[in-house]
Amino acid sequence: MKEKRIRIGNQTSFSASPITLPFEYAVTMGFDAFEWFPDKRSGSGWTEDDLSQDTRSQIKKTAFEHDIKLSVHTVWPSNLLEPESDKSLSKTIAFAQDIGASLLNIHLHKDAGIEAYGKAIIPLIERLADIDIKLSIENTLDTEPQDFNELFDYLRNIGSAHSYRVGMCLDLGHANLCETTRNDYLRFIDLLDPQLPIIHVHLHENYGDIDSHLPIFTGPAGNDPSGIIGFIERLKNRNFSGAIILEQWPEPEELLNDARKRLLEMIGSYMEPDVK
Question: What is the pTM of this model?
Answer without folding.
Answer: 0.94
